[in-house]
Amino acid sequence: MDQFQISVYTSLGCCFFLSCLYVASLYVWSSEENRDHPSTIKKRFFSVFIVMLLSPLFIYLFSSPDLLKNYTIWYVMGLRTDGFLSALIYPLLLTVVLFLGPLSVQLTNGIWKIYSEPMFWLNYCQNLLWLRNHVVAPLSEEFTFRACMLPLLLQSFTPVTSIFITPLFFGVAHLHHMIERLRTGMDKRTAIIISFFQFFYTSIFGIYSAYLFVRTGHFVAPFIAHAFCNHMGFPDIPDLLAQPEPKRCSFLVLYILGLAGFICLLPTMTDPTWYQNNQFWYNHTNPKLNVSI
Predict the structure, then answer these.
(1) What is the pTM (predicted TM-score) of this model?
(2) Which among 19, 161, 177, 259 is least surrounded, fewest beta carbons within 10 Å?
(3) ∠ CA 235-125-184 to the nearest 5 degrees?
């Protein structure tokens, strides 16, 4: 990796600018409608796709010249075919294990019966809110914050450091929701508390997402995990506590088992060799170093 080195200021500056560009693109339109209004959603779809078109330019313009002589820009962004199927399946299964508790609650609530209806998915695929939350947001955010930022950071920092830096940009980028909450009339104290809680859990997810990208070397791995997490949402703890006994105790055990299983399986199911990870940050001369990322 030492041969592909750029200045810390260059990589951090590019990431900061990309974060600002992504958030600014959401507010470039002058509109009185809220973020869930169809016209606002459509305008923001257009904005983030423009950002997605511009983001790879930062890798092209500011990467080490030697890097792009050895790898294509699309390869370092994780847009590659080797190991694609593994990157599509294993990270999703790993994320499903993490949500073992919430999925069990859904199973008993009968939500899975709704999921088995083809019309449910057909209707949702035509719903702008669903498309935003499950397709466009994960696609554009992972493309900008992982596929375009991490290849830059990994030319200045170790994989571990890069994994912990990227979520800060990702988490801060979500603080803009506080502006929209205040616009809807929410009191300032509540808006701040909710927004900083959102910053906390989006940053935690950002670490996991960056970890997936670095370990698998694939864009599709964090994208599919992000889409699934958006589908599940934050675990509904009040609903869990409201369950009657002995269901509540059983679900609590499944929550704990899911988390424990996720932690235990994480290093194995993200083993770079499973994904034919030949990215520049993967040290082939000392694979053990990389497995401990």
Answers:
(1) 0.88
(2) 161
(3) 60
pLDDT value of residue 215: 96
pLDDT confidence of residue 46: 95
Both tokens assigned to 55: 């983001």
Contact 70, 238 (CB under 8 A): no
Question: For the chain, which residues score pLDDT lower than 70?
Answer: 1-2, 172-183, 283-293
pLDDT digits (tens, 9 = 90+) for 194-237: 777 777 888 899 999 999 999 999 999 999 999 999 999 888 88
The residues carrying an active-site annotation are: 141, 174
CA-only gyration radius of the chain, Å:
20
